[in-house]
């Protein structure tokens, strides 16, 4: 599948099929047991990724690539960063706009579109939490190399790791349930991604919480 085809599937999924589910998962509203473990894992992963950025973010310009409903942007803007949130789903961007807190130290601007759009400008850091989990290693390398000319410092992002459990689920089709036509999550080995990019990729922390299994990575041009 091409980068564009994957991106279009992801857009359909988040902008139509799963908008309400995603809005709820990323809120404080109660969710069922399995989703609660996913929410807890994602909260931990947000902390892991933020932990890779400098403590003082005053004036730093940061891209929240695939910002969804905006939680990461809100937190980083509170710490002084000027956030640019972009997501291929206009519906999720509208939710981020609606939830945008007032009075943060840094600024926030949200728009709908592709994270690779050069018009978004240049960044000190880029953060992409669970936004690249549906893409092939070639596509991830294309994203990293595409963002490189506009990245001053580091980029932190997540992938689904190639664990025995995830690979077994992948083989029997559990990572792409046909019922909701969700896009396929693709498990990766860090070394294979690293080999395809011009910069440096390294493993950070892996977070496992119920059905949420996600590997944090750092990329430096
Ligand atoms: C699993 S959600 C994560 C959202 C958010 N980062 C979070 O952690 O709450 C993945 C998001 O990535 C977005 N996305 C995927 N590919 C994208 C692309 N090429 N450009 C912009 N957004 C993209 C999707 O629309 C979706 O909102």
Write up this protein.
The chain is an alpha/beta fold. 38% of the residues lie in helices and 22% in strands. Helix 6 (137-147) packs across helix 8. Strands 1, 2, 3, 4, 5, 6, 7 and 8 form an eight-stranded mixed β-sheet that branches. It is globular and about 45 Å long. The protein has helices at 3-17, 19-25, 33-50, 71-78, 90-99, 137-147, 164-171, 190-196; strands spanning 61-65, 82-87, 108-112, 125-128, 155-161, 187-188, 200-209, 212-220. The chain has a single domain (3-220), classed as Vaccinia Virus protein VP39 (Rossmann fold, 3-Layer(aba) Sandwich), CATH 3.40.50.150. It starts with a helix and ends with a strand. It contains eight helices and eight strands, in the order αααβαβαββαβαβαββ. S-adenosylmethionine is lined by residues 7, 10, 14, 26, 66-68, 71, 86-89, 92, 114-115, 129-131.
């Amino acid at each position: 599948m091409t980068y564009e085809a994957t991106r279009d599937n992801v857009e359909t999924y988040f902008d139509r099929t799963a908008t309400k589910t995603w809005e709820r998962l990323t809120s404080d509203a109660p969710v069922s047991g399995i989703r609660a473990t996913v929410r807890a894992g994602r909260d931990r992963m947000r902390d892991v990724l933020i932990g890779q950025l400098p403590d003082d973010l005053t004036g730093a310009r940061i891209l929240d690539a695939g910002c969804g409903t905006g939680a990461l942007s809100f937190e980083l803007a509170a710490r002084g960063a000027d956030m640019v949130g972009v997501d291929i789903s206009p519906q999720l961007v509208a939710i981020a706009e609606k939830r945008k807190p007032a009075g943060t130290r840094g600024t926030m601007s949200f728009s709908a579109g592709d994270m690779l759009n050069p018009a978004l400008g240049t960044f000190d850091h880029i953060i992409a939490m669970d936004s690249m989990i549906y893409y092939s290693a070639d596509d991830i390398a294309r994203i990293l190399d595409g963002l490189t000319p506009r990245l001053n410092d580091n980029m932190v992002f997540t992938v689904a790791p190639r664990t025995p459990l995830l690979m077994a689920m992948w083989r029997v089709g559990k990572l792409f349930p046909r019922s909701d036509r969700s896009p396929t999550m693709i498990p990766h080995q860090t070394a294979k991604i690293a080999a395809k990019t011009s910069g440096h990729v390294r493993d950070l922390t892996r977070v496992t919480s119920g059905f949420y299994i996600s590997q944090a990575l750092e990329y430096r041009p």
